[in-house]
Amino acid sequence: MVQHVRSGKLKALAVGSAARSPAAPDVPTVAESGVPGFEYVVWYGLFAPSGTPRAIVTRLNEAVVRSLRLPQLDQQLRGQGSEPRPTSPGELASFMKAEHARWALVVKATGLAGKVNP
User: Fold this and answer.
1) CA 15, CA 40: separation in Å to the nearest integer?
2) Percentage of the chain modeled with pLDDT above 90
3) Which residues are CB-contacts of 17 (< 8 A; sequence separation ≥ 6)?
4) Which of 36, 20, 38 is nearest to 28 (CA)?
5) CA pair distance 81, 118, nearest whole angstrom
6) 15: exposed, middle or buried (Cβ count in 10 Å: 0-12, 13-18, 19+)
7) Per-residue pLDDT reduced to its tens digit, 52-92
8) From residue 32, how far is each of 12, 17, 38, 57, 70 by CA, in Å?
9) Collapsing DSSP states into helix, strand and coil, what is residue 6?
10) pTM of the entire predicted model
11) One-character DSSP codes across 47-108
């Protein structure tokens, strides 16, 4: 989408992250645009089946972290507006737990519980 904004095909109104995106520093955040505390970002995680031996999980994580730190891949992802943040399995678990708690409050407050097909 960043390419379309840069070309003028799209106009970016705001980004959902807490801080402005380095890929589009002139685009304000939603919070700056009048919705204080708003933050929503797309994130990706790599998962293995339950019961996968810890040594394999560690090895996979190390390979992914190494890959995300390759200058060429880092540059390509940032050029698309992504901000790679390699983490450990424990950090991902903590992040997911916090996200679940945060979005559970949103679902409850909006009355969406039970109204969306899984």
Assistant:
1) 9
2) 68
3) 29, 39, 40, 41
4) 20
5) 29
6) buried
7) 999 999 999 999 999 999 999 999 998 888 899 999 999 99
8) 14, 11, 9, 39, 33
9) helix
10) 0.76
11) ---TT--HHHHHHHHHHHHHHHTSHHHHHHHHHTT-------HHHHHHHHHHHHHHHHHHHH
Give the integer Cα–Cα distance in Å for 22 and 25: 5
Q: What's the token pair of residue 76? A: 């390509």
Cα(first)–Cα(last) distance of the chain, in Å? 27
The CA–CA distances, whole Å, from 64 to 6, 39, 73, 94 equal: 30, 26, 11, 18
Q: Do 96 and 45 touch, CB atoms closer than 8 A?
A: yes
Share of the chain above pLDDT 70, in %: 97
